[in-house]
Design goal:
A seven-stranded mixed beta sheet has the order 2-10-9-8-5-3-4, sandwiched between helices. Helix 5 runs parallel beside helix 6. With 399 residues, the chain is α/β, with parallel strands linked by helices. It has two domains: 130 residues, Aspartate Aminotransferase, domain 1 (Alpha-Beta Complex); 244 residues, Type I PLP-dependent aspartate aminotransferase-like (Major domain) (Aspartate Aminotransferase, domain 2), CATH 3.40.640. The protein is built from 14 helices and 14 strands. The longest helix is centred in the C-terminal third of the chain and has 22 residues. Pyridoxal-5'-phosphate binds next to helix 3. Its cofactor is pyridoxal 5'-phosphate.
């Protein structure tokens, strides 16, 4: 391997780039997790993260990847053989569905085409048929990272309520939280699930469950085996800022900084920044003459853009050319999108010039790999970013 100068561009949709402030915050001695200093850290992150989830209810933090938080949400609320209703938005919904089978749940999976979000109407119709209330939980992915499609969680809640159905609403917002608006309490989400390495801008290793009173109540009756994931012991210890087992102390230092950074920028500004980058990216893709996978404008992801490559060309070949020449990682097409599509991550600690560097790498890669396209994608993004530069807007407002 020869030395590569400059920073690697990590433009996959998670793990996202870890800002220097978070790296510095984690670069500290690991402290006694039963001592008084730890309790301060524990209390600070356990309360701070609630603001990011927009909840007044408890949030538990596991030393685990997001997959662990999926499992925690299921085993704490359900019993063996329980029926759950899921929706096939893409690969992550498919993996979570696969997990329910391994845990002995009876999952119904409403088929989707991987280009649309959750159809709340289909969920409502299925629940309305279930007059015996056999379905115990509706499990959906808020932001489907394999496709770049966002689902309207408030509409899923309305569909459940309109059907008069008592099912719990479990939502994976692993790649949504901290990048696009998510309102745990307002949307009546019973368990909201996330992890550290996407919108929270951290390395992998922490995962989260935000728990509604109704979910907590269900956990008292749930009988699926659980030990490591048990909310009860976790919440007992969390009350004093501690954990039932060794927490990922240094990642918690990073989390404290991540929460401070998100609140310093302001969540609404964070969301607006992501929305602006996604629009600029789609303008580039359209100028290249390529197709965005997401079909419905209101569902377009603000976190990533999945781009289809023309028939007969290899998306993975293109990604390799870009990695070799420009030291940039782009997301691969997952499952049925393998080699058909690539994903541009534009989330986390990211600014206008990092986006333009990213898009320039893609445009040069398209040329080198011989993928048919028109020039001018980067220029289209430049035009949009310049027109919408935040400082121009504030100057106009002041005038
Ligand atoms: C990344 C991701 C996961 C999986 O998280 P891991 O940390 O890899 O276990 C699950 N769901 C969504 C939507 C994701 O983006």
């Amino acid at each position: 391997m020869t030395y590569k100068s400059g920073r690697h561009f990590l433009q996959i949709p998670g793990p996202s780039n870890v800002p220097d402030r978070i790296l510095r915050a984690m670069d500290r001695p690991t402290i006694d997790h039963r001592g008084p200093e730890f309790a301060e850290l524990g209390k600070s992150v356990l309360s701070g993260i609630k603001q990011i989830f927009k909840t007044d209810n408890p949030v538990v933090i596991y030393p685990a990847s997001g997959t662990g938080a999926w499992e925690a949400a299921l085993v704490n609320t359900l019993c063996s053989g329980d029926r759950v209703l899921m929706y096939e938005t893409g690969q992550f919904a498919t993996l979570w569905h696969g997990m329910t089978k391994k845990l002995g749940l009876e999952a119904e999976f409403i088929a989707g085409d991987w280009r649309h979000g959750v159809d709340a109407g289909a969920i409502g119709r299925r629940l309305a048929e279930d007059s015996a209330h056999e379905i115990k939980a509706v499990c959906v992915v808020h932001h489907e990272t394999s496709t770049g499609v966002t689902s309207d969680i408030a509409s899923v809640r309305r569909a459940i309520d309109a059907a008069g159905h008592p099912a719990l609403l479990l939502v994976d917002t692993i790649s949504g939280l901290g990048s696009v608006d998510f309102r745990t309490d307002e949307w009546g989400v019973d368990v909201a699930i996330t992890c550290s390495q996407k919108g929270l801008m951290m390395p992998p290793g922490l995962s989260f469950n935000a728990i509604s009173p109704k979910a907590l109540e269900a956990s008292r009756r749930a009988t699926l085996p659980r030990s490591y994931w048990g909310w009860d012991e976790m919440l007992q210890h969390n009350a004093n800022g501690y954990f039932p087992y060794s927490p990922a102390t240094n990642l918690l230092y990073g989390l404290k900084e991540a929460i401070a950074m998100l609140l310093e920028e302001g969540l609404d500004n964070v969301f607006a920044r992501h929305a602006r980058f996604s629009e600029a990216t789609r303008r580039a893709v359209r100028a290249w003459g390529l197709e965005v996978l997401s079909l419905v404008p209101s569902e377009h992801s603000n976190v990533l853009t999945t781009v289809l490559v023309p028939e007969g060309h290899s998306a993975d070949g293109l990604r390799q050319v870009i990695l070799d020449n420009f030291d940039m990682s782009l997301g691969t097409g997952l499952n049925k999108l393998q080699d058909r599509a690539f994903r541009i991550g534009h989330l986390g600690d990211f600014n206008d010039l990092s986006l333009l560097g990213t898009l320039a790498g893609v445009e040069m890669g398209l040329a080198i790999a011989g993928v048919p396209h028109s020039k001018g994608g980067v220029q289209a993004a430049i035009d949009y970013l310049a027109e919408t530069a935040p400082q121009t807007q504030s100057r106009d407002k002041a005038a």
